[in-house]
Amino acid sequence: KKIYLLSGLGADHRVFDYLELSGYHLQHIKWTQPRHKEPIEDYAKRLVSQIQDQNPILLGVSFGGIMAIEIAKLIKVERIILISSVRTQREIPFYYRLIGSLG
Question: What is the pTM of this model?
Answer without folding.
Answer: 0.81
